[in-house]
Design a protein that fits this description.
The structure holds two protein chains of two kinds. Chain A is an all-alpha fold. Chain A is built from five helices and no strands. The model of chain A has no long low-confidence stretch (mean pLDDT 83). Helices cover 54% and strands 17% of the residues of chain B. In chain B, the strands form five sheets. In chain B, strands 10, 11, 12, 13, 14, 15 and 16 form a seven-stranded mixed beta sheet that branches. In chain B, strands 6-5-9-8-7 form a five-stranded antiparallel beta sheet. In chain B, helix 15 packs across helix 20. The longest helix of chain B has 66 residues. The two termini of chain B are 91 Å apart. The N terminus of chain B is likely disordered. The chains are: A mainly alpha, B alpha/beta. Chains A and B meet through helix 1, helix 2 and helix 3 of A and helix 22 of B.
């Protein structure tokens, strides 16, 4: 019944692909924790300035990271925003970014359970 | 003089005739005299002139002397008389003077120069040349007193006379001299020059006769003599030449006669041949005409007349110029193009005739067409051949329009297919994607059922569509095969794996056996090979209810193995124990759209296209496919595949593992004979010591009686005792000494009950059948030599250069720091040490300053995206330095992926990165590097 925020398979896949060393995975999780706020801030700034190109690129970046770590909801939201930016059909960028920031918070909380 | 030539009779001296002599001598001698006479005259004149002058001077001097003396003396003589003024006496004295003939006049003057007396030619006194005046002195006793002067004039007459005498004398002498000289020269000339020349002249002028020439008889040691000698020699030689000439002439005449005779024969033959040829030409159905170099008609057959003039009977006499023939042809109205502008048409035809090049087509009245061919002959003439091609042209025109129509239709079909392919697949992919997602969400049983059905139906539909599209591509000849190195074992085992679950469901054994001497890697199209294998395996499983399906791969040339670049011939065979194929249906097997019979279609499903496509693919790859079958027993499909052996990536780890487990003894327990054989072979090829047993009880017996094994491989599904029971039994029997065990099963290990048991029994590994070689090897290595595992990992991370094969410089381009880290870790694990940059610009710089073999280029980057960076790199670097560039993209759309290739990427990988695909790209980059190094 739990809402799956983090897809464990994705994490396992990531672990596998980088060589199976849990320490490496740890390093990456820490990186995620460190860098994602910065990316989010970029997105907020871009939304405020209505800079769709910058917004698209940042969304793409966060989407990729989300996918890597199994944050499916986060990744999907970013994907949608990226596509909308590409098509130029973003109605309320600030609101979209706000929704994404909530997803990110959830993902970070969930991921923290995996960190030592 | 001796004759120098042969055939000369006794030489006879030639005497020149007087007439010739005289006539001849005159001309040269006259010339000679023309030189001599003037010379003589002039010298005579000069010499005698000098003499004369001298003589005259002397004479004059003498006269002068005489005069002076006379005057001196007579002045003294007359002195007395003058003193005494005895005029008479004086006159006497003076008259006495006159007796000398020389004296012309004399006169005496007194001391006052008055004339006292004079005698002779007194008028001459003042004017004469020889005139002397002397003072008369009288000696008075005291002194000499001048009392007067005496003048005497001498006459020059004597001188003149003398002079003329002398002159006459000279003339005489000169005359004599001249005559003498002339005579002398004439004589000399004649003797020395004239005669021999005359002789030679005669010899030359001698009329030509058969008698041999006689030499000129003249001997002298001078130039003339030498000339005569030369002349004689010349004459002799001349005679010899004439002789030879004569002889040659005679021979020639003989030969000419011969040849003339031959010629006459030849002419007869030629005439006959010409007659035959004319008959032949007249009888052929083409119009034939021969023109000479000046484009005048030599001969033309009836058909030519017919074609050009419309009437075979009209006369075209030999020598008719081409233009005239053409005029008549134009006038006949048979050439529509000539109607408008006759002159231009004639000019054009003449041009073509003269050009005598490629044949051309000409339209004639009544929709007829002829082909005209003009050819140059060796003599510069022209042969014109006119053939009627009306029928041929009609057929050719029809064919052309049919071909155009067919091509247009084909193109339309291909365009349609391409569009349809995309249009159909897109929504279908959507359905499949969505149903997969749906399956992942929370569903109750009924919903799950529905969802699964949708998935299955969509998958089936996709397969059918792919089949149809593949089929039409194959039919249109538009299928292109890839040429990439592929891991054979991997490809084959993957195909088998795909069919494994279906086989397990039906309860039939699925086995895969790859001969140890099959080369591990080949150049080919792995996707298509998988397609072929899966088609055959699927069919086998489909039509088999009990028993087994076995795929065997072997090589026909075991020695050719493992040398990259060599060609090997592989044989694949899929043997099943299914329902079989009746003999009368065999020939329809590979035909499109036919299954063996309609009932099988209903029962077993399928489009009926699979085998056709398989056959075409095999043939495209250069192989052949065949089938054998026994009703109710089974079927075997087999195909050959020639392919080039390739280098296999990443053997190193495998080699290490093999080295670590070498020689270990393994006990195989499996009731299926085929499986035992395959495992046995595989383990043996890995240099292990396997032993197989078909019954678990027997195996336990073997173990009981002492043979120690390093590891046991046991199948789960066995009659009597299953895998679990066997393991328990062994553990009970041997306790601590029980070797580690690996379990093989067809049941998916995800089934929880099964998994629990596996966990409880603490197997070293649990593998699904058929086990991939790599998986089995890994399990063995982990069990038998666990140290190397972690060691290998550590080694790889710290010293990637140790690996002999992988030697690529990798550049990773991604703006996202986490992606960079992940990418770096993945690559390090594979043994590479990549350089990582964060932007397109940095990538360009890096490629310029260092040589990279492969660039993993993220597409979505700020400032400069991956495509732009790639294009810059390609533009800036020379062709042989450009690395293999792979796009890293999170875009899942296939169309997007194809676009990347079109935009200049060498390949693409989707994110998250799939290690196998990454390895493929790395292998391709390695290939590129090796190809460049080789060239």
């Amino acid at each position: 019944m739990t809402d799956v925020v983090i897809e464990k398979e994705a994490l396992l896949r990531l672990l596998n692909v980088i060589g199976g060393d849990p320490e490496d995975l740890q390093e990456l999780l820490e990186d995620f924790e460190e860098t994602t706020p910065g990316t989010l801030q970029e997105m907020k700034d871009a939304a405020a300035n209505e800079d769709l190109t910058a917004l698209r690129i940042s969304s793409h970046s966060l989407k990729a990271n989300g996918r890597d770590f199994g944050a499916v909801a986060l990744a999907d939201a970013c994907a949608q925003l990226e596509q909308a930016c590409r098509e130029g059909t973003v109605s309320d960028p600030v609101a979209e970014v706000h929704a994404i920031s909530e997803e990110l918070s959830r993902a970070r909380v969930a991921l923290s359970e995996f960190t030592l | 003089m001796e004759g120098a030539a042969n055939n000369i009779d006794e030489p006879r001296v030639i005497q020149s005739s007087p007439i010739t002599r005289a006539r001849f001598g005159l001309s040269v001698q006259t010339k000679f005299l023309f030189y001599v006479v003037p010379l003589v005259l002039i010298s005579t004149v000069i010499v005698f002139g000098l003499f004369e002058w001298n003589a005259r001077r002397t004479a004059e001097q003498q006269l002068q002397v005489k005069l002076q003396r006379l005057v001196d003396i007579q002045s003294a003589v007359v002195a007395e008389s003058l003193w005494n003024v005895a005029d008479q006496q004086i006159k006497l004295i003076l008259s006495a003077l006159l007796t000398d003939s020389d004296v012309l006049a004399a006169a005496v003057y007194d001391d006052r120069d008055r004339l006292i007396s004079e005698v002779g030619a007194v008028d001459a006194i003042d004017t004469a040349r020889f005139s002397a005046q002397e003072d008369i002195f009288y000696d008075t006793g005291d002194a000499d007193v001048r009392i007067g002067s005496l003048r005497i004039v001498l006459s020059e007459d004597r001188l003149a006379v003398q002079a003329s005498e002398r002159f006459n004398f000279v003339i005489l002498l000169a005359g004599i001299l001249l005559v003498a000289v002339i005579t002398a020269s004439l004589a000399a000339n004649r003797r020395i020059i004239g005669r021999p020349l005359g002789l030679m002249m005669e010899a030359i002028n001698q009329p030509r006769s058969a008698a041999p020439r006689k030499p000129v008889d003249w001997n002298s040691n001078d130039e003339i003599g030498r000339v005569v000698t030369a002349f004689n020699d010349f004459q002799a030689r001349q005679a010899a030449y004439e002789q030879q000439l004569h002889a040659a002439n005679e021979e020639l005449e003989a030969r000419v006669e011969e040849r003339t005779a031959e010629l006459v024969d030849a002419e007869v033959t030629a005439r006959e041949a010409r007659g035959l040829l004319t008959d032949a030409i007249a009888s052929i159905s083409e119009g034939f005409a021969l023109y000479d170099q000046s484009d005048r008609l030599i001969v033309a057959n009836h058909r030519y007349h017919e074609i050009m003039l419309g009437d075979a009977e009209v006369e075209l006499p030999t020598g008719t110029p081409l233009e005239q023939v053409l005029e008549k042809a134009a006038a006949s109205g048979r050439f529509p193009n000539a109607k408008d502008n006759q002159e231009l048409w004639i000019e054009k035809q003449v041009g073509r005739h003269k050009a005598a090049g490629t044949p051309y087509i000409q339209e004639m009245a009544g929709k007829q067409w002829q082909q005209v061919s003009n050819r140059r002959t060796d003599q510069g003439g022209t042969v014109a051949v006119h053939s009627d091609i009306t029928e041929i042209k009609r057929i050719s025109d029809e064919l052309k329009s049919a071909k155009d129509a067919a091509e247009a239709a084909n193109e339309a079909k291909s365009a349609f297919l391409a569009t349809m392919s995309h249009e159909i697949r897109t929504p279908l992919n959507g359905i499949i994607g969505m149903s997969t997602l749906l399956n992942g969400t929370k569903l109750d049983e009924e919903q799950n059922d529905f969802s699964t059905t949708i998935s299955t139906a969509a998958d089936t539909l996709l397969t059918i569509i792919n089949d149809i599209l593949d089929f039409s591509k194959v039919e249109a000849g538009a299928l292109e095969l890839e040429h990439a190195p592929m891991d054979l074992v991997e490809t084959i085992e993957t195909s088998v794996e795909m069919v494994a679950s279906k086989a397990a469901e039906k309860g039939i054994e699925l086995a895969c056996r790859i001969n140890p001497d099959v080369p591990p890697a080949m150049i080919g199209d792995p996707v298509r090979l998988k397609q072929i294998l899966m088609n055959l395996l699927n069919n086998a499983v489909k039509f088999t209810d009990v028993g087994e399906v076995v795929l065997t791969v072997a090589t026909m040339m075991p020695d050719a193995v493992n040398q990259a670049g060599e060609t090997a011939l592989l044989t694949f065979s899929v043997r099943d124990t299914g329902i079989g194929i009746p003999e009368d249906r065999m020939h329809r097997l590979f035909k499109s759209f036919s299954q063996v019979d309609a009932s099988t279609t209903r029962r077993y499903g399928g489009t009926g296209l699979g085998l056709v496509i398989t056959k075409r693919l095999v043939e495209l790859m250069g192989g052949e496919i065949s089938v054998e079958s026994d009703m109710g027993v089974g079927t075997t499909f087999a195909f050959t595949l020639p392919a080039e052996v390739a280098r296999i990536p990443d053997r190193a780890r495998k080699d290490e593992q093999l080295a670590a487990i070498k020689g270990a003894s393994i006990l195989i327990v499996d009731d299926n004979r085929t499986n035992r054989l395959i495992l046995n072979e595989k383990l043996r090829s890995w240099e292990l010591t396997p032993r197989a047993s078909g019954a678990p009880e027997e195996a336990i017996d073997i173990l009981k009686h002492g043979s120690g094994f390093d590891l046991i491989v046991v199948d789960y599904k066995m009659p009597g005792m299953n895998g679990f029971e066997f393991t328990k039994a062994v553990r009970d029997e041997l306790g601590d000494k029980a070797p580690p065990m690996i379990l093989f099963s067809s049941i998916s290990p995800l089934e929880s009950q099964f998994r629990e048991n596996v966990a409880k029994l603490n197997y070293a590994a649990s593998l699904t059948k058929p086990a991939k070689s790599a998986q089995l090897l890994n399990a063995l290595a982990k069990t038998l030599a666990p140290e190397i595992d972690t060691e290998a990992q550590r080694k790889r991370v710290s010293q990637p250069d140790e690996y002999e094969v992988m030697d690529l410089k990798v550049l990773l381009v991604d703006d996202n720091s986490i992606n960079q880290k992940v990418g770096r870790k993945i690559l390090k694990r594979l043994g590479y040490d990549p350089v990582v940059v964060s932007s397109g610009e940095e990538a360009i710089e890096a490629c310029q300053s260092d040589e990279y073999n492969i660039v993993l280029m993220d597409i979505e980057m700020p400032d400069m995206d991956g495509i732009a960076a790639t294009n810059r790199i390609r533009a800036l670097l020379p062709d042989d330095r450009v690395p293999y560039i792979v796009a890293l993209t999170a875009n899942a759309m296939n169309s997007e992926r194809e676009n990347y290739l079109k935009s200049g990427m060498d390949g693409y990988l989707s994110k998250p990165i799939d290690v196998e695909a990454l390895n493929d790209s790395l292998a391709s980059a390695m290939q590129l590097k090796e190809t460049r190094a080789a060239s």
